[in-house]
Request: fold
Amino acid sequence: MNNKAFLPMPDDDGFFGEYGGQFLPPQLKAVMDEINNAYEEVRNSDAFKNELAELMTHFVGRPSPIYHAKNLSKKCGGAQIYLKREDLNHTGAHKINHCLGEALLAKHMGKTKVLAETGAGQHGVALATACSLVGIPCEVHMGEIDIAKEHPNVIRMKILGADLIPVSRGTRTLKDAVDSAFEAYLADPVNFFYAIGSVVGPHPFPKMVRDFQSIVGKEAREQFMDMEQVFPDYLVACVGGGSNAMGLFSAFLDDEDVKMVGVEPSGKGINTLDHAATMTKGSSGVIHGFSCYLLQDNEGEPLPVYSIASGLDYPGVGPQHCYLKDIERVKYETASDQECLDAFMDLSRYEGIIPALESAHAVAYAMKLATSLDADQRILVNLSGRGDKDIDFVAKLLGLV
Ligand SMILES: *Cc1c(COP(=O)(O)O)cnc(C)c1O
Reply:
């Protein structure tokens, strides 16, 4: 390992090593710099920190527990598996952590509307929730395929008062929803706030979203030490854009003995075209205003990507992850659709916990890893969300109904 992981990141231009930055026209760069300045101001303001902390406790329900999944560990035979229960947060996933931060910041900056894209609908629901609470209008762009697949989240957003914009172009999934939302944002970037749903996009979003998510790792570090008097041997988290993984990993980067694994979807197979394994198969490129590993064609255009979990099908990935891969602080592995489904059912049947399909990728990898380790080793999985949104889809697929 390389101790460059300890450097404060990103640098002033928003780079994590060679990744990140602001690949934007000057007018938008100025808007992003203004957001960065506002963020740097509020992150050091006691009033803002206290307001956010209060909401984390009394609205989100933090701290989320850590649970020792003894039955699942026993079934795997090998290491002990623990779950950081982000699925128990209000709205059912980790995304509420950064959505509240972003909505509060937008309000603080006097913005008139918050815009966003959503994949599985989790970011849309979390953002619509945060905007209702904070009192600011919210517009969510979502691909038509995802709308059909994630019906309950679509209804939730409507009930919460968000303006839902269906996206019918291109892949009709997350990537095109980002393009659509971004175009709408460009109509008035001075008064609108684009709430990015992960540790991606131009500076300062990878930094800001990571900071808002870092509460997951800070809690986990303390909780795990209280529970077991040691740190986990491994941290495992699924990686779409990478926010739940960065949230957990960020608190442990200096703990050299804690190994970390980010799990990407290999979909129908890493050697097919139906996956979203950006770290494994991608190369350096630029997407949505920042540089990162990217699944791209010869012209640098993002490739269509696929995962059984809508929240993981993004052709890029957070710039800090790219850096952590290059310095070998974090390893990036994959889990397939089938492994994800098996883990989804195993966690449900052995522990009574129905995970989000996204999170089930991390569980799947942890189960494989556990089998290869001894019983005194400990794996902490970030259970990023609950599977209520996925039950109809899975039941149909597995012929349960
Ligand atoms: C959106 C989502 C993810 C993927 O996003 P990251 O930014 O990679 O964390 C993972 N799990 C759940 C439950 C999600 O909703």
User: Anything to note?
Assistant: Residues 15-56+95-205 form a domain with the Rossmann fold fold (CATH 3.40.50.1100). The pocket of pyridoxal-5'-phosphate is lined by residues 93, 95, 120, 122-123, 198, 238-244, 311-312, 356, 358-359, 384-385 (CB under 6 Å). The mean pLDDT is 95.
